[in-house]
Amino acid sequence: MVNKITSLAEYFKKYQQSVADPDGFWGDIAETHFWRKKWDQALDWRFEGKDAPNVNWFVNGKLNITENIFERNMFMRKDQVAIIWEPNDPKEPEIKLTYGELFEKVKQFANGLKKLGVQKGDRVAIYLPMVPELAVAMLACARIGAIHSIVFAGFSATALADRVVDAEAKVVITSDGGFRGTKSIPLKAIVDDALQTCPSVEYTIVLKRTGEDINFNNEKDIWWHDLVDGLSSENVAEVMDAEDILFILYTSGSTGKPKGVVHTTGGYMVYTEYTFKNVFQYSDGDVYWCTADIGWVTGHSYIVYGPLLTGATSIMFEGVPTWPDAGRFWDIVDKYKVNQFYTAPTAIRALVAQGDEWVNGHDLSSLKVLGTVGEPINEEAWRWYHDLVGKGKCPIVDTWWQTETGGIMISPLAGITPTKPSLATLPLPGIQPILVDPEGNELKGNGVEGILCIKHPWPGMLRTTYGDHQRCFQTYFSAFPGLYLTGDGAKRDEEGYYRIIGRIDDVINVSGHRIGTAEVEDAINQHPKVVESAVVGYPHEIKGSGIYAYVICEDLSDTDLANIEAEIRATVTKFIGPIAKPDKIQIVSGLPKTRSGKIMRRILRKIGEGDATNLGDTSTLLDPGVVDEIIDGAKVEV
Ligand code: ATP
Ligand code: MG
């Protein structure tokens, strides 16, 4: 396969080359794509100065990303399966769409959008469950040059409205409802509610999925099936500039108000294809499955764009890992003989808690590669994944990246880079990480820990935050002039491997010692009764910051309850040392999480500080009830 690295020596060689001559390195890769007009210059950039950041990849190049998914490969892939769709209910039949079939649907729906007056540059909000039409809708937007803004279909009406207003979307694409486990979610009703405050929206396209009754406004609402009925699938792709916007995607909101991250066409295309085939070591004929929702960047880059650009077979799953039972993931792996499996630590931890019996009894022998993304993976979960799911024979790619980075940045190449539990290992070719101290001084050499920044552009990086370029500069480029600030802290170990230790706000300074929350959580989780924990700092008179641990335990008896705090402290002392012992431990039944499963530590920090009066933007919170319970337990002011 073209541009696929096959050995560690080759990785090092490519890496050197990519640093010595980034333009030449990425230019060579881009040559293998289909361009309507070749670029004049591979890269023109500045992270500082007027209107910074200003990053242009493949300057004046013209292309359409869907021509690179479809036309470029059609002669060899027409009858190959592009998407396997596994429904929520295992009794419902699956759908397999070949590249040829998917192409027809994309072109036809593209014509439907055009019929509604959608033009190049218009924003289209997509609020759909994980059904094949979600992929069709996004690719149809790309086909005609409309900018998609996908909003995870688990978000509330307010969260949806915020995003639709910010992007000034002209059309919203949704469905009557969506299935998740035993639940049926009334998506159209949520959209109706949201659209009361969204004047830019002219039409709502409604896909029939659950068949439940909905309110239908004949002037503004159009059924998907009526829109495409009888429409031709003749469609010529819009010619896009390499730097025309492909999509907007709002971040998870773990640290504050979600940001409308903007990705453009040419660079994102080159970067997602390159990282997909290299990190997962995808080979022709493999079946690949990423369990993320397409509402997150992981789904954009590694269910749709990366795999389809590579010509892969990509599974899309509508349901949840625990329904009808906790063996569902492994049923699906077995059913389709999945070769590469990519999920999040939160899903792994949830399955660890359900017990090993759900994994055993499935034939998982097809698996070659396992991946994780989204949070640091604790060592216990890593071991479970490696030993039980991968039977000790599948490399784990712990992939560190962000909505803003467009694609994977630091990760092993599966089976090529030797791995270590909980380490994201080495930067991909083209990625130049740098660790700095809080004053911005570079921390050179190995065995150092600091703030993770990137010092040179890569093709998949964000170009701006939608409608507010100043915010982009402020958030990512102002702290350390000339560097992209990731917001994460990292350690570079003696071998030069990176370990992500969490967000910089999550590093606690205890009596002058910098302690990563992830590390303390890792230690606490070693206690056999602990299911999950979240650690934050709080103001402490003597130490500067104290350590506050919120801990979920399983079936505690009265004696356990009396002893658990002391035992947890002893566990932390054993694994890290007495300096990291939590000062306060609060046993809770749940933790505040975003809808993508990440812990919102900023809320726990506020509660830890004893002030629950202003918790900030909580629109992406999965279950607000959890917060009330924790506030009660912490006995703080509200
Ligand atoms: P917001 O930026 O709105 O606060 P968010 O950072 O959670 O939300 P995402 O872009 O979805 O939004 O997540 C990126 C972050 O997830 C990274 O900055 C990092 O903190 C964490 N992360 C992702 N992958 C890994 C990984 N493999 N190891 C450790 N942390 C990871
Ligand atoms: Mg972030």
From TrEMBL:
Start and end residues of each AMP-dependent synthetase/ligase domain: 70-458
AMP-binding enzyme C-terminal domain: residues covered: 519-598
Domain annotation Acetyl-coenzyme A synthetase N-terminal: ranges: 11-68
Keyword rRNA-binding tagged: no
Alphabetically ordered keywords of this record: Acetylation, ATP-binding, Ligase, Nucleotide-binding
Broadest EC class assigned to this enzyme: ligase
Molecular-function annotations in GO: acetate-CoA ligase activity; AMP binding; ATP binding
Keyword Translocase among record annotations: no
Entry EC number(s): 6.2.1.1
Family label: Belongs to the ATP-dependent AMP-binding enzyme family.
Name assigned to this protein: Acetate--CoA ligase
